Each structure stands twice: as C-alpha cells, then as structure tokens.
Amino acid sequence: MTKSELIEIIAQRQKHLSYKDIEFAVKTMIEQMAQSLASGERIEIRGFGSFSLHYRPPRMGRNPKTGEAVPLAGKHVPHFKPGKELRERVNLNVAQEKSRPADQQTMPREIQ
Amino acid sequence: MALTKADMAERLFEEFGLNKREAKDLVEMFFEEVRAALEAGQQVKLSGFGNFNLRKKNERPGRNPKTGEEIPITARRVVSFHPGQKLKARVEAHAGTQRQ
C-alpha cells in the first residue's frame, strides 16, 4: 500500500471530507512525524508503536574505490518498535496460513 | 516530550479547520489503515517517511531467562520499518547528544 492508496482508502471511508482534504491531512501527518524525528523528538502512538532515534557512534569507514580510510561522524538513525496491538494483529494469521495454499496468503485489501 | 495522536489531531484542528472530533477520527483512521494493510500481509510505503515491511521468522530455540528452561520461540510474522533516504538525511542532520 502506497501513500496515495492510503489516501484513497481513507477518502472512501470518510464521506464528508474531499479527496483533496484527506490528501492534505495525510501529508500533514506524515510531515509532522518526520519533523518530530528530525528535531530529536520521539513519536508514541498507542496500539501502533513508537519511533525513536538510535545513535550510531563515529567510526572509520573506507572509500570503496581507493581503499582509503575515511572518518565518519556519529549520527542518529530512526528506529521503530511495533506496539502490542500491531504485533499481535500482524501475527494473527500466521498459524492458520501454514495450512492454506501459498497463493492465498496475502490478499490485497482492496479486492476483499 | 513525545509526539502523540493528540498532538497530530491538534495540528489538523489548527491548520485545517477540522473540528476536534473529525481531526481525532482522521488520525485514528490513518494508523488503523496502516495496521490493517500490514495485518493483511501488505507492505506499506509512505514516501517521504519510510516503508513498513513484513518479515517471517522461523521457530527458533529460546530460553526463559529466569529459570533457564528451554522453550521454543514460535514462528511468527513481524513488522520492520525502513526509513527512507529523505527521513534519514533529515534525522542525521540532527546534532543532539544520545538521549533515547
């Protein structure tokens, strides 16, 4: 599912707001989440998960072309930890899936 | 302070003229649809942010850390998040000390 498919789905469920409105709202939410991490602030969404920053200490890297050692500065990288509800729901069908044919395992939501 | 659903609803309310109820519902729906897609086995790609992928993990041996007893960790499906280039670049520029 891409961002535009997500916008589409929400627009279908939410009849009183236009596609354009939903599109703007979804982009605003994603941008706000990115901004939050970019400013060093965590994101905590109950039932979904939390995003935080993990620190990677400085290290010596290598230029793959010349083999020359290059110092790399420490940096932060985004990290996601799924919440309880997401973990459980994603894992829900795994036990049953084993007994089903492989081609039925992932059915796109739109055509259900 | 962490960003929460309430903060996100507040922003939609302020910037966007939605009433508080609508703003809250929209934020809820956003995360619910991402969860539902993942639950249905679909990868979720949010450009400008990152991708949520699903990984199958096989059963592996585990141990109860308290008792030392061996118990198998059952096969499972888990979500992994891969931040996009744009988000990584924005976060990397963040010059902070270790705090999280």
Concise structural overview:
The complex is a heterodimer of chains A (about 110) and B (about 100). Chain A has about 110 residues and is of the alpha+beta class.
| H and E string of chain A | HHEEEEEHH
User: Which structural class should the secondary elements of chain B be placed in?
Assistant: alpha+beta
Count of DSSP strands of chain B: 5
| Average predicted local confidence, pLDDT of chain A | 86
The residue ranges of chain B in which pLDDT falls below 50 over 5 or more consecutive positions are none
Distance between the termini of chain A: 14 Å
User: Cα-atom Rg of chain A, whole angstroms?
Assistant: 20 Å
What general form of chain A does the structure show? elongated
Would you report the number of β strands of chain A? 5
Structural class computed from helices and strand pairing of chain A: alpha+beta
Number of helices of chain B: 3
Biggest β-sheet strands, sense, barrel of chain A = 3 strands, antiparallel
Strand order of the largest sheet of chain B: 1-2-5
Main β-sheet of chain B, in a few words? 3 strands, antiparallel
Mean pLDDT of chain B: 91
Unreliable segments of chain A (pLDDT under 50, ≥5 consecutive)?
A: none
H/E series of chain B: HHEEEEEH
What percent of residues of chain B adopt helix (DSSP H or I)? 40-55%
